[in-house]
Each structure stands twice: as C-alpha cells, then as structure tokens.
Amino acid sequence: MSHVLQYCLAIVVMIALGGCGGGQLWKEEVAQPDGKHLIVERWTKLGSVFDREPAPLSVPPPVVGYGVRIPLPGGGYATYEGDRNLIPLLALIQGGTAYLALGPWNCLAYEGAGSPIPPYVFLRYERGSWGRLTVDQFPASAIRSNLLVNTGGPGFRELAEAGWISAGVIVERNRSLDQDLREIRRTPPWDSYLACPPGKGNPNTLYPR
Questions:
Q1: Residues near 71 by Cβ (< 8 Å), separated by ≥ 6?
Q2: What is d(CA 121, CA 165) in angstroms, rounded to the nearest whole number?
Q3: Where are the domains of the chain?
Q4: How confident is the model at residue 52 (pLDDT cuts 50, 70, 90)?
Q5: How would you classify the pairing of strands 121-126 and 129-133?
Q6: How far apart are CA 31 and CA 147, in angstroms?
Q7: Torsion sign across C-alpha atoms 120, 126, 131, 132
Q8: Is there a contact between 66 and 87 (Cβ–Cβ < 8 Å)?
Q9: Entry pTM
Q10: Alpha-carbon distance 90 to 101, whole Å?
Q11: How far apart are CA 145 and CA 198, in angstroms?
Q12: Residues contacting 88, CB < 8 A, separation 6+
C-alpha cells in the first residue's frame, strides 16, 4: 500500500472517530453546606459532530447525557445517569444519604419533567435507587449549586482533560449563570424560563400567587 493511500485512510478513520461522540470524565471537589467537601465523579456523553451546527473541529460534539457518582459514607456510590434534558446542579450528603438536584435545560425539558414548582427535579438515593422528592423533602441547607453546570463553555475541555476541577473553579465558572441555576430558588422569578411561552413550560406562570 502506498504512503499516500495510507495517509488518506488515516484521515478517513480520524474523521469517522471524531463523529462518533464518546464522552468526557473528570472529578470535582464539591462544597457541602457544612464546609466539608466531596470528591464526585462527573461525566458527559457526547453525540455526533454531525448532529450540530457547523463548528471548528476544536469544538467538542454536543452533550447528550450526564453522569454523577457520589461516594457514600458507608462505602459504595450513588450513581446517576440521565439524558441532556436534566442538568446536574447540586450534590449533597446529609445524614448518610445522597441527594441530587437537577435543572431542566429548556422549556420543553421542564414540561417533560412534569412542570415542577420550583423548576427543579429533586432526588434522594435509598435502597440502591434514586427516588423523586418534593421541594419540602429536599434539605433546606442545600442552596448554592455546587456542581459545574456549564460543561460546554470556553475552557471546559481543558479542565475536563486535566481530570480535576476544584470547588473554587466551580464557583467562578457558575457565577455567570442565571440566578435560578446558580442556586436553588424556591420562589420566582426564575429567569431561565422568562422567555418560555405561558403554560406548563414556564414555571413563572404556574407559581401560585
């Protein structure tokens, strides 16, 4: 086989692999309300570069799923995996139990989650599985988002490849988010949804006055 043909085949393989998605894996130092920290494993599932608007090759494929693995005090892990419709915001260990708060990523995702008020999905890990909670059942001390929310912003790829993201970096990078993504807001306005049409896709129009 000629060197030219070998080179051309190598280019074809690289393009094919680049379009197949894959994922990114890293660890985060997650601040807890009591001042302690958890070391949480995070990952994203990536789609195909062909499923997005044209972009430079340096831009990673779109995120199609999220994963979080929280260490449990008694050993083992509480592992969450979901699609891109729910973005992990906050991970917590309280009383030996793992909790997780997620935020819908757009109006349709919010409606698909059942149009909860406030606009978050609250989970608790018990007996080997996640169960959904009401806001009143979720620990009141959990307010500020302590997970890295924007996993597609500038510089994230380098952070993920380094494998470690500190609590300070998480706070700094979350600072530019709407307030209802920076923290768990129990009352409106929820700025991320102000542009959503009135109805089940907009919690601001559903909140009991």
A1: 38, 39, 40, 77
A2: 24
A3: 22-206
A4: low
A5: antiparallel
A6: 9
A7: negative
A8: yes
A9: 0.84
A10: 5
A11: 26
A12: 42, 66, 68, 80, 100, 101, 102, 147, 149
Q: Token digits for 193?
A: 């949804």
Q: Which amino acid is at 90?
A: L
Element (H, E) at 145: none
Task: State the amino acid at position 40 in one-letter form.
Answer: V
* Whether 72 contacts 93, CB under 8 Å: yes
Q: Which of 164, 29, 77, 114 is nearest to 102 (CA)?
A: 114
Contact status, residue 167 vs residue 148, Cβ threshold 8 Å: no
Q: Using CA atoms, how far apart are residues 81 and 98, in angstroms rounded to an integer?
A: 15
The answer to whether 182 and 172 have CB atoms below 8 angstroms apart is no
Higher pLDDT, 48 or 169: 169
What is the sign of the dihedral through the CA atoms of 163, 71, 44 and 111?
negative
DSSP 49-64: GGGSS---TTSPPPEE
| The residue type at 160 | A
136-162, pLDDT tens digit by residue? 999 999 999 999 998 877 888 898 899
d(CA 86, CA 65): 9
